[in-house]
Amino acid sequence: xxxxxxxxxxxxxxxxxxxxxxxxxxxxxxxxxxxxxxxxxxxxxxxxxxxxxxxxxxxxxxxxxxxxxxxxxxxxxxxxxxxxxxxxxxxxxxxxxxxxxxxxxxxxxxxxxxxxxxxxxxxxxxxxxxxxxxxxxxxxxxxxxxxxxxxxxxxxxxxxxxxxxxxxxxxxxxxxxxxxxxxxxxxxxxxxxxxxxxxxxxxxxxxxxxxxxxxxxxxxxxxxxxxxxxxxxxxxxxxxxxxxxxxxxxxxxxxxxxxxxxxxxxxxxxxxxxxxxxxxxxxxxxxxxxxxxxxxxxxxxxxxxxxxxxxxxxxxxxxxxxxxxxxxxxxxxxxxxxxxxxxxxxxxxxxxxxxxxxxxxxxxxxxxxxxxxxxxxxxxxxxxxxxxxxxxxxxxxxxxxxxxxxxxxxxxxxxxxxxx
Amino acid sequence: xxxxxxxxxxxxxxxxxxxxxxxxxxxxxxxxxxxxxxxxxxxxxxxxxxxxxxxxxxxxxxxxxxxxxxxxxxxxxxxxxxxxxxxxxxxxxxxxxxxxxxxxxxxxxxxxxxxxxxxxxxxxxxxxxxxxxxxxxxxxxxxxxxxxxxxxxxxxxxxxxxxxxxxxxxxxxxxxxxxxxxxxxxxxxxxxxxxxxxxxxxxxxxxxxxxxxxxxxxxxxxxxxxxxxxxxxxxxxxxxxxxxxxxxxxxxxxxxxxxxxxxxxxxxxxxxxxxxxxxxxxxxxxxxxxxxxxxxxxxxxxxxxxxxxxxxxxxxxxxxxxxxxxxxxxxxxxxxxxxxxxxxxxxxxxxxxxxxxxxxxxxx
Lengths: 420, 364
Description:
The complex is a heterodimer.
Chain A: H1 19-59, H2 64-69, H3 71-76, H4 88-104, H5 107-117, H6 121-132, H7 140-147, H8 154-162, H9 170-175, E1 178-180, E2 186-188, H10 196-227, H11 230-241, H12 248-259, H13 264-271, H14 287-311, H15 316-323, H16 328-356, H17 360-365, H18 373-382, H19 387-411
Antiparallel strand pairs in A: 1-2
Chain B: E1 7-17, E2 23-33, E3 37-41, H1 48-56, E4 63-68, E5 71-72, E6 83-86, H2 98-107, H3 113-126, H4 142-154, E7 160-164, H5 172-189, E8 192-197, H6 200-206, E9 209-214, E10 217-222, H7 224-229, H8 234-239, E11 244-254, E12 257-262, E13 268-273, E14 282-287, E15 293-294, E16 303-314, E17 318-325, E18 328-336, E19 349-354, E20 359-362
Parallel strand pairs in B: 3-8, 3-9, 6-7, 7-8, 13-20
Antiparallel strand pairs in B: 1-2, 1-4, 4-5, 9-10, 11-12, 11-14, 12-13, 14-20, 15-19, 16-17, 16-19, 17-18
């Protein structure tokens, strides 16, 4: 640098080619090698992870049903102002679409899609499609009105018109407890249907609680592990890692046996007279159960980074602090703890992100009060088959994790994180 | 000396064992006077650091008592002893700046902000690091970290400062520079220092007195010059400086001197009796290389022997000559590279002479 290209002139190699170029040539082989080493994993992740994520996220905005399966109606509604029931031309198009849809048996998908926006739409569409096969000639308006009374509703047409566009924010509105009202304005869901906002909040609160409990439990254990002689610390490390080697399902069901009202813990409490038989504690199928079981499962993720950081702190720092006149408590708080912050940060971010998306344990021991947002996503994937909403919920979860990660990086700096 | 009020530190028959089977420190006695610079010197594992740690309070003594300023301190925790300490790898707190590191001992003592700032500034100026207040330890060179560590151990005005091989991590030039710096600080501030090292040059440069450790025992406690010139036993003679050893049997003792018959069959040698059993016992003769005279005629020195030059190594200021003498092929002679010095050739037979006072008969 000191005697190099200060004026931007090109540095040449011995044979006269620019130095950068010959360096690139020399490094190309290494780069290709590195690429080949990474390739199998990258391809695997691409197909098994990245593409599905993009697919699910795309489903959360995708709105193909009405536009594709009711092309005539979509076209006819293009210039509709939405102020009154549409003209005869629209009804003619509607009958054509219903007829075509009934023959291909695809019209149900439109019904399902519209039903997410307003309940009752599915039966209206399917029954009308069935009846449309017999319709010979117009005027179509009165015929359609006779098929189902909801066709006289202005809102029905508003919903259909809104969903003729290929993309929708409807799933996202749904995921944050908002909806379109009759006139198409965005409003809050009624009180008794606001579930996802509460679930998101509960998921964050539980994850936070589990993270804090994990810090409190893991800190002393990690300290002991890091300061003990190696032969003892190895044994203790095995105990810490033991949960990793046991199936998640086995551990969770073990907690059921431990915590249920006729379980080991309650029996012991009754035996020692802490509680009487009639008032056994409800420790499972609620929030308590979720927190206990998840803390147990995630604890090693806090212990390991903490341990690896503490292992690198030589005992002379504490000794130095003591020799400088700090009592053991002050020395610990002012000299030891700040040096473990990177471990706390790494452990917290691991535990928090893992618990935010946790599924099996809350599903098994959470009951109704201890389920998390992931359980709702699973419900929409498996039971209600509303994949658009599942995609929207998942994307929001992913987004919030990334936002938290960015925030963490801003405050603590991801380079300070030590995982091992 | 032991009852004098000038004694700051007193070890009284201190023993230390870690496992209840082996004593790493066996019956350690030491008085350190106020203002003195005492070095504990010895190979690794000789118990010197353990003694320092007991004094600092990080290791309890298994037996015996340690006094600081006349007060027994065995049950005083380290943070109440008020002893400054410099650690082997400096132990500067990595998450604090230089100024924060220096302020730490003052803050835990509850000093006021302005007083702390004053003292920190003074301490940094003392080690010529003014302007480095806001650096982190990781941004300093080894020598600078070392100086910060020293000034941190001094900033709260302790009467006693301990140093545990503080210069071990520095390169040779810097180490020498720091030796003088620490020596000057000691003279300037009039603090008492107890220093641990395995480097004899370091010990000789800085100390008022040196305690030579081996196998948990102090082999000799003396001023540097005495230690070098008058070692008490074969270990000290071998550990401090370079030393030629010849083995033999004591034939007769005549006052301070004795006649020793060399094992190689080269005849009788007159030597100073220092640490021998009696007539008929085996002895190690210790002789400093620089006291050997080359090429003298028989009779010009008390002892004269013939040796064969095996190897010559040119070292600039002197020529190191390995000579085989009386069956010992590792006999070293230093020929100073002065004007008109003796020119030896490899394979040449030459006469080597020395005075009886320079040849010390020690334990075998």
